[in-house]
Amino acid sequence: MGIELTAIHYVYLAFIVFIMVLLIKRRDTTMICVAGIFALGLLATETLSGSVSGIFNSFIYATKELMGTIMIISIIVAMSRVLIRTGINETMVAPLTRFIRTPGVAYWGIGIIMMVTSFFFWPSPAVALIGAVLLPVAIRVGLPALGAAVAMNLFGHGIALSGDYIIQGAPKLTADAAGIPVGSVMTASVPLVIVMGLVSTVTAFWMMRRDMQKGTWRSGLVSPGSAAGALGEDRTLEKGDRVVISPRAKRWLAVLIPLLFAAAVVAMLLLKLQGGDATALVGGTAVLILIAVTLLAHRQRGLEKVTSYLIEGLVFGFKVFGPVIPIAAFFYLGDAAFTELFGKVLPAASHGIVNDLGVALAGVVPLNGAVGAVTLAVTGAITGLDGSGFSGISLAGSIAQLFGTAIGSGTATLTALGQVAAIWVGGGTLIPWALIPAAAICGVSPFELARRNLKPVLIGLAVTTVVAMFLM
Fold first, then answer.
1. Which pTM does this prediction carry?
2. Domain ranges within the chain, ordered by starting residue
3. What is the rounded radius of gyration, in angstroms, for the C-alpha atoms of the chain?
């Protein structure tokens, strides 16, 4: 027998549809999520005070769930700030520049270095960490600034961020919303991230070479010489905060810091750490590096500057996740959060709103893996239209749980597919306002960069969706 659906189920579903419509129209969804929480609270408690309190309590619940992710990103950004201002980042990347001799090597070299760096530092800080050093080298050997920006985007904001295997912010969000372990989402995402990455980067490279040979390549520069101008502007911004340390100290730290992170990764593998434990290890390592480098660089002002860098990181973290908290608060209500916040008002046989809807859907609509995969890819892409990438992956996780329950399998694969689609579209490869960091450092138009990324990313998503059908 199916689960009896109540008004709470139908209201939750109606708000999901409404949220997706707003995302398609590129409108902000925060207010409608708050309205959804209020409506569900009113139905559950039948009191105005209970529903109003439910809004705040759901924000607290979501913040507690997301705090680990917010903190790790804030700490990584704080650490990257001191590495940039001391010039250690330049020293870390400098040895790699001697191997960049041709435009092809520059494209793949910048991409791979960006990907590896982004796994540890996240893409936005990674752009600043390596862009100023590698872009002049790439341009010197013939790679256009727009080509370098494409490589940074696809490898960093695409491959690294959609997998997020080290910091694990993205899989934590989607796994929570889908009600499955983080490890399951990460394992399921590996083949999808590989396929998506290979197809999109190879397609982008082939299209770039073809257009350059035909003479139809558009530079995308904001103005003549703007690539150099952007780099100069970036260095000017940092110049006032530039901290001088000895070349010998830079060299030692440039070797030691990657070794410390490599040791953390080895420890994860040996100790079988995943999820919060793995994140804690990376975060603790980053904090120690931040403190050590800051004390060495700033000496007498070191104690105060540690706090200053942490504040910078926290401002960045909450700025990124500010829009995510109310959205996640609504989608967490689809699972255990609803009972925790509003009590046991669902039917006795209920396993959560989303699970109930999935069971009901299975009894009405004949579903299969192909339908589920296409739905999750489209849903993920739509949620990415706001240019965040992260704000909508809770929705992707909830819908993956709904379809996985209805089909009877494949929840992890569907969740991973929704995550990949959302982050590739919104995380910084297709939405112009999300492309600004890479576009600014390379001095190119974010709209031209989005245009260059469009076909490779859409082709990659189509192939990845087909692969997901076979993996379910």
1. 0.70
2. 7-471
3. 23
